[in-house]
Amino acid sequence: MTDNPLRVIIVEDSEADADLMLRALRKGGFAPQHERVQTAEALRDALGRHPWDVILSDYSLPAFNALAALAVLRERGDDVPFIVVSGSVGEDTAVAAMQAGATDYVMKDRQQRLAPAVERAIAAAAVRRERAELGRLLLQSQKMEAVGRLAGGVAHDFNNVLTAILGSVELLLADTAAAARGREELEIIREAATRAQDLIRQLLAFSARQVLQPSVLDLNQLVGNVSKMLRRVIGEDVRLATTLATDLGAVRADRGQLEQILVNLAVNARDAMPRGGQLTIGTKSVDYDVDHPPPSPHDHLRPPPGRYVVLQVTDTGVGMSRDVQTHLFEPFFTTKPRGKGTGLGLATVYGIVRQSGGHITVESAPGQGATFRIYLPRVDSPLDALTGPKAIRAPVAGTETVLLTEDDPLVRLLARTVLQRAGYVVLEAPGGKEALLLAEDHSGPIHLLLTDVVMPEMSGRELMRRLAERRPAVKVLYVTGYSEEAVAQHGVLDPGTAFLPKPFTPEVLARKVREVLDGT
């Protein structure tokens, strides 16, 4: 039978007594590696050199004692089992030691009890550490969830603001000659609002509230298609290599979002290799069961048992510490210099993966590069055909009647202006009740309901249901700052429902309205 290795500090001035402790440990099935100390300074030095399994301490030494040794442990914050081994421990002395943090005490003339006491202390410490780690992981998970909810809510509100800004600027630019005074300033506003729109999209990605268009696709094909762009992203100092598995299974995900993941991870890798290096992208199919879990140093990121296709991105960069990895996927967390990054790149990756039903792990250490693994559920469905960009249809104008229902007055004003300029008759209402009253008083046809999804008092879906009872031919286009997934949780969207996310430009709104009315 193999003895259990044991790292032990012995606080003892008598070498003979220390040898007795070691002999008792060996008899109890341990293979001790020890260091004997007699002062507070020596104890601090020993604690700083290695991790230790247990400390065995005489109660009283000429220049030191067990209570002072326990004070050193508290001062350092070390969680190491501490057993007092003394020749004369009275009841009061033992109580004082336990109150100071000792795990147990053993009399020197009963050394046969030492090994069992050490075994109990180590087991209790393992349970204590496991509970502490589970508590930390729970807090981390709750924090990420709370930040995600906050990010999603903020993004929704900003989308309303950006819709009004972008839409109004587009209308002004359409009415402003190319050389007119003030046009340059309008274009600056549009550029700034567009950059803000990109940030909001990243927040929505982190909070898993963006609109996805999933299809069944081959990751090898996707990596091949995006490699040329990645070479431009990473620059000439970084080599790009691929290790793509044959007979790779398919996944169901949004092609554009997976490309965004690769770009973000490539940028992150490039910044971690300021003197150049190698970026390797790989794929493989894996099956994990309960007995053979996937490798991950972070249990809260480990994917559950299942069939996966793995997308792996590895760099030879500077690596990162365990503490950095703990905060890696939080929005606005960055180790880059001020002005060199938004802190949303990896948060975006995390959100896209999570919304796609996948999992992401990271392995890294300072000076050893980093490896990100993305686990996407494998599907058996045939691949969807690649589709090119849709042809632009014209005209976008019309003469139909649109019932516009939007609780944000700025967005409502913009939509009304766009639709009226396109030739539509617009009936506008700030909410569902007002929209129903307008529809009841309107004697002519209503061809389209253009409505926000989530509104006070009455949702867009409830409004559509009531309106369709009176006007069964009416069509609907939902508009919202939330994503398709978020509004689906409110029971709003059915498969095939026309949906337009905010922010949108006047051209996009007019074209979408025309498409819904034409049934295209």
Global geometry: elongated
CATH fold-level name of the largest domain: Heat Shock Protein 90
Overall number of structural domains = 4
- CATH superfamily name of the largest domain? Histidine kinase-like ATPase, C-terminal domain
Main CATH class of the largest domain: Alpha Beta
Record the SSE blueprint.
Layout lengths: L3 E8 L3 H13 L2 E8 L2 H10 L4 E4 L8 H11 L5 E5 L4 H9 L4 E4 L6 H61 L8 H24 L7 E4 L1 H16 L3 E7 L5 E5 H17 L5 E12 L17 E10 L6 H6 L17 H11 L3 E6 L5 E10 L21 E5 L3 H13 L3 E5 L2 H10 L6 E5 L7 H11 L4 E6 L3 H6 L9 E3 L4 H13 L2
Parallel strand pairs: 1-2, 1-3, 3-4, 4-5, 7-9, 13-14, 13-15, 15-16, 16-17
Antiparallel strand pairs: 6-8, 8-12, 9-10, 10-12, 11-12
What can you tell me about this protein's structure?
The chain is of the alpha/beta class and 520 residues long. The protein folds into four domains: 4-129, 3-Layer(aba) Sandwich (Rossmann fold); 140-206, Signal transduction histidine kinase, dimerisation/phosphotransfer (DHp) domain (Helix Hairpins); 214-379, Histidine kinase-like ATPase, C-terminal domain (Heat Shock Protein 90, 2-Layer Sandwich), CATH 3.30.565.10; 401-518, Response regulator (Rossmann fold, 3-Layer(aba) Sandwich), CATH 3.40.50.2300. Helix content is 44%, strand content 21%. The protein has 15 helices and 17 strands. The chain has helices at residues 15-27, 40-49, 66-76, 91-99, 114-174, 183-206, 219-234, 255-271, 322-327, 345-355, 409-421, 432-441, 460-470, 484-489, 506-518, and strands at residues 4-11, 30-37, 54-57, 82-86, 104-107, 214-217, 238-244, 250-254, 277-288, 306-315, 359-364, 370-379, 401-405, 425-429, 448-452, 475-480, 499-501. Strands 6, 7, 8, 9, 10, 11 and 12 form a seven-stranded mixed β-sheet that branches. Strand 11 (359-364) and strand 12 (370-379) form a beta hairpin. The longest helix has 61 residues, at 114-174. The radius of gyration is 32 Å and the shape is elongated. The model is unreliable at 387-394 (pLDDT under 50).
